[in-house]
Specification:
Elements (H helix, E strand, L loop, with lengths): L13 E2 L4 E3 L6 E3 L8 E12 L6 H4 E9 H10 L10 E7 L15 E6 L2 H20 L10 E8 L5 E6 L5 H15 L8 E4 H4 L8 E2 L1
Antiparallel strand pairs: 1-2, 2-3, 4-5, 4-6, 6-8, 7-9, 7-10, 8-9, 10-11
Length: 216
């Protein structure tokens, strides 16, 4: 039990930022049980990093950074890694539910698609980090109500021509889920009503001129 220097005029117990209390009598600290309790997330998540090296296969370039399932561990990971805007061109971050790999071929992804946000070069400085953090918070906070189970993960691509952020879902035929997710996502990012974002199936994305299945 840690102690501090006694004071001439002891004060009542006061809470501290670290969850402890100072008793005021002899400066003793009483640790609140809440200081040790982490807040569980509804799902366990995996954060991946990819750096394109054309001498290697795509899967060989993909690296698992960390897994977490509490609010505190999410922030510990987020605060430890580089901001997206500081990454080199050709790098990706991907956050997916544990057990789902960030690739179209994964069983949970192959019948799905993505809501896509495309940013111009100026937005890397102005919007990229804010949009990506809000995307992460939407995922780990299960922001899409009853349709959150339909969400598989999200990806941010850092590219010279323009960065992209996408929220991936598991079934492109689930219209109600997809449109609800798109509307909530657009609102959470604070995008103007007149601005539209599109949803593409992964199959269509692989085509030379992919078409949007849905827009909001």
């Amino acid at each position: 039990m840690a102690t501090a220097e006694p004071e001439n005029n002891p004060s009542p117990s006061l809470p501290r930022e670290d969850g402890t209390e100072e008793t005021g009598e002899i400066g003793q600290e009483i640790v609140s049980p809440e200081a040790y309790i982490k807040h569980p997330l509804q799902n366990r998540w995996s954060l991946w990093f990819l750096k394109i090296d054309k001498s290697k296969t795509w899967q060989a370039n993909l690296r698992l950074i960390s897994k977490f399932d509490t609010v505190e561990d999410f922030w510990a990971v987020y605060n430890h890694i580089q901001l997206s805007s500081n990454l080199m061109s050709g790098c990706d971050y991907s956050l997916f539910k544990d057990g789902i790999e960030p690739m179209w071929e994964d069983e949970r992804n192959k019948h799905g698609g993505r809501w896509l946000i495309t940013l111009n070069r100026q937005q890397r400085r102005l919007d990229l980090d804010r949009f990506w953090l809000e995307t992460l918070l939407c995922l780990v906070g299960e922001a899409f109500d009853d349709y959150s189970d339909e969400v598989c993960g999200a990806v941010v691509n850092i590219r010279t021509k323009g960065d992209k952020i996408a929220v991936w879902t598991g079934n492109y035929e689930n219209r109600n889920a997809i449109t609800h997710i798109g509307r909530v996502y657009k609102e959470r990012l604070g995008l103007p009503l007149k601005m539209t974002i599109g949803y593409q199936s992964h199959f269509d994305t692989a085509q030379p001129t992919p078409k949007n299945k849905f827009v909001v």
